Amino acid sequence: MTGTKERLEMGMTGNYIAVDSETIVKIASGELQLEELDPAEYPSLDIDKSWQAILYTLCGEVFNGEPPLGYVVPLLEDQTLDFLDYGAFYVKPEQVAAAVAAISGISEPDMRQLYNFEGMVSEAIYPVVEDEDRDEFFSYMFAHFADLRSFYETAVTGNQGIIFWIS
């Protein structure tokens, strides 16, 4: 079985919604529970299983990436919400703006410079498997990164915050 086939069979997809700043404040303070929101009512993005690979490529970390790049896949223990199996994470509008400033200039060649496939294999970065095709995986990951960058850019124009969770 190839790495690509295995990726199709596994779970744990990265999901985003963009919400107004008032909703982020209520979510962060606990005044509003994430379960009370209907994700279908908000702009959303599914980056499939690329979330940990994007975080690792941008930050060299598997959790708590250094801001502002750490706001892109925000596995931030100080901005965690109790939600589903893995929790959810929020990013305030000003943090979304900082993330956009940090990633807006990252081109495909720039991302290739940051890409450490061997490190991903040795760190067991999800969903990379040992027999994965390095170039094919990069293309998969970069396509989702490009979608994510566009999603964040749109959120900035609406002064929106982001909520991220793994399902």
List keywords for this structure.
167 residues, alpha+beta, Hypothetical protein yfbM fold, five-stranded antiparallel sheet, 7 helices, 14% strand, globular
What would you note in describing this structure?
This protein has a single domain, classed as 3-Layer(aba) Sandwich (Hypothetical protein yfbM fold), CATH 3.40.1760.10. The chain has a 5-stranded antiparallel beta sheet with strand order 2-1-5-4-3. It is built from 7 helices and 5 strands, in the order αβαβαββααααβ. The longest helix is centred in the last third of the chain and has 24 residues, at 134-157. By secondary structure, the chain is an alpha+beta fold. Helices cover 44% and strands 14% of the residues. Helix 4 packs across helix 7 (134-157). Residues 1-9 have low confidence and may be disordered. The chain has helices at 3-9, 21-29, 51-59, 93-103, 108-114, 117-122, 134-157, and strands at 14-20, 44-46, 80-81, 88-91, 160-166.
